[in-house]
């Protein structure tokens, strides 16, 4: 009989480093597809996430088996799948609960739509919205993404980033033109971010959508997520309300932050 001892059983409750890496890569692929709702080819995904196409193929095949991704077209490409709908519906956003009293107060005082958004990899993602009471109001859907450089909430978030984070964002972003007022050069955007830091709020003066302006302010949540609260307003009302909305937003966000210091 051998005296050699058997190796201890593996700890099945602790995932391997390889398993953790696969999960991280799958999450990165899903985030990339989230920002491209029409879908991407495997080559495009590989280029975006910096992985070999063969690795992306294996991960996408696994995601497809769980309906987390679907073919984007009959010929090629993939997009987010229907299984994410039920996952999204079950998601609980403590950030939205934390900001809810502030959003409600802002909406009550100004009568305009109030939005809460969070920083994603290359976009701002809307988490919550209180619709305005005016017949003509600026509305969008929860879960919709908006660019950084052409929106008030996006520019407010960029202005709050440190130099390292802003440098990484600069490598990812394309300053696409949406209207004649859109900032499309980094030097101009950096100048705008400096002005935002000085005055404390960011403006969108028909830079993303004609007929819509907005004011926004960014802040860190108690769990350190970078978020922004914005008030989009039809352009016909914005000029007369711009100063009032800016002061109201700054005051209410200062109150919100003071409760969690």
TrEMBL record:
The entry's keywords: DNA-binding, Transcription, Transcription regulation
Molecular function (Gene Ontology), one example: DNA binding
UniProt keyword annotation of Transcription regulation present: yes
Domain HTH iclR-type as annotated: residue spans: 20-82
Keyword Transcription regulation part of the UniProt annotation: yes
Annotated CDD domains: HTH_ARSR (cd00090)
Residues of the signal peptide: none
Protein name in the entry: Transcriptional regulator, IclR family
Organism name: Atopomonas hussainii
Lineage: Bacteria, Pseudomonadati, Pseudomonadota, Gammaproteobacteria, Pseudomonadales
């Amino acid at each position: 009989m051998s005296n050699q001892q058997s190796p201890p059983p593996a700890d099945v409750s602790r995932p391997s480093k390889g398993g953790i890496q696969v999960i991280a890569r799958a999450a990165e692929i899903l985030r990339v597809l989230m920002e491209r709702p029409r879908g991407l080819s495997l080559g495009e995904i590989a280029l975006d996430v910096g992985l070999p196409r063969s690795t992306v193929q294996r991960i996408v095949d696994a995601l497809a088996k769980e309906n987390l991704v679907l073919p984007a077209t009959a010929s090629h490409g993939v997009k987010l799948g229907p299984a994410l709908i039920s996952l999204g519906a079950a998601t609980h956003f403590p950030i939205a609960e934390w900001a809810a009293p502030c959003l409600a107060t802002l909406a009550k005082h100004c009568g305009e739509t109030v939005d809460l958004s969070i920083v994603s990899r290359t976009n701002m993602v809307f988490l919550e919205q209180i619709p305005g009471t005016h017949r003509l109001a600026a509305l969008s859907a929860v879960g919709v993404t908006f660019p950084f450089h052409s929106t008030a909430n996006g520019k407010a978030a960029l202005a709050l980033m440190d130099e390292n984070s802003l440098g990484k964002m600069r490598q990812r972003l394309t300053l696409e033109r949406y209207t004649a007022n859109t900032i499309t050069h980094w030097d101009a955007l950096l100048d705008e971010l400096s002005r935002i830091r000085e005055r404390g709020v960011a403006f969108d003066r028909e830079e993303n959508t004609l007929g819509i302006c907005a004011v926004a302010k960014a802040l860190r949540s108690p769990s350190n997520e970078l978020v922004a609260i914005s008030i989009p307003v039809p352009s016909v009302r914005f000029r007369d309300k711009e100063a009032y909305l800016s002061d109201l937003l700054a005051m209410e966000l200062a109150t919100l932050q003071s409760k969690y210091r």
